[in-house]
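dumping this here before i forget
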Amino acid sequence: MHSHWARHRVRHRVRHRVRHGALHGVVLTGALLLAVASACTSGDRGASAPSTAPMTRPNIVFILLDDVRYDDLVDHPFVDLPNLKRLAAEGASFRRFFTSAPLCSPSRAVFMTGQYPFHNGIVDNGERGELSHRIVTFPKLLRDAGYHTGFFGKWHMGHEDDSPRPGFDRWVSFVGQGVYFDPTLNVDGVVAGVKGYMTDILTAHAVSFIAAAPADQPFLAFIAQKAAHPEIHPNQVRSFPSAPGDEGAFAADSIRHDPSWRAPLTGKPALQRPVDAADPRSPKGGLPDKYVRDRLRMLLAVDRGIGAVIKALEAKGVLEQTVFIVTSDQGFFYGEFGLAQERRLAYEPSTHIPLIVRYPGVVPAGVRPNALASNVDIAPTMLELGGAAVPATMDGRSLLRAWRNDSTTIRDDLLIEFYSDTEFARVKGMGYKAVRTDRYKYIRYDALRGMDELYDLQADPYELRNLLPDRAPAGVRDELSARLDRLLSNRGLSP
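structure:
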């Protein structure tokens, strides 16, 4: 069977079912993914010849993971992710990339807008559906500039609103956090149930989109996987379900723990304070190793999905003309300072996230950029790649120079912010603004007087010794406080 006609028939079947609201019961994890992958890799190569249309701007595949920390993906001692390793080996893996808002909705809005939460207005996980229809996103700006755009996955800016957002030619999403098995999806405005595993389903939709993308337009495929966010069951019970066949992976491997794992809470009065409806914070807590393994197993399906996307790009003849980006919205605590299943706080396990970029001919193979960068920098980077104007209202800076040179400096400091919410009792009243430089991190709590924290990250990378109130080097606290004030007043742009 010629691959062109195989792809055509797969696309026709999917479109027919979506058009008639008949996706219920369709097995997308196996049948569609395998059909698309097979169509993209088999048959007469002459029938699937690469597009010869002139391409002055790259295609973009942007994969946003959920709750995946830096060390989950980079230099892990036993998790083998061959497709992700290929991207890193053929491109760049940033050493110091951070989220400016370690919470799902605010972080996603930062990625999309290039603005800090206090500018874009999405400051928490509350109901932000109406606002998220109005924010100006880089996909919309790229679409206005001529890109063919598709969104696949977790939007999570509006708990009950999975309707298509402006700026996308193709839309596949779900309400809130969704579920891993047999989800209900909104496909271009048609809501229906689908059989299978969420990671595979979203991958299949993205592969279909890439295969059908017009040859005379660059495209953006934004794939926002649910993995590795926990599945939330009634009564807030949480689990980490892996794809069928991955359940036994890593069973014999030992989970590594850094020095902050179950470390004493010395110097962290905000974590030690009594909170109504919350047990006193204790270093005895943490995520059991079993659940850490469960989370890591979820990445195996993510990696296979990356492989399927690579094959689709190869079959279309556009892999070398495509920017491939993998990152995460925020990290996750495995037991550092007794914290588990938490993000929100300004410590490294929550804020340090991966950024892997492959773009042949532009990004040198195997580089490890050391530039201090943040997710607020992604939107202006995408716009510069796509030849679109970067609005003056964006707080971020393009990372293109850092991709080409691992010694390039993008910024001297970056902002991290969290606005107190009521979802978890422990963080009630714990809103903060923080500034991170090459050497220091200063956390200023909004309402908790006398509980600020300052860490020398060169001497103390695991944030074990708070230098406040009386151990900070002369003038350091004042300097960092002034930097923080400037970031908040000048849209995060360093002079």
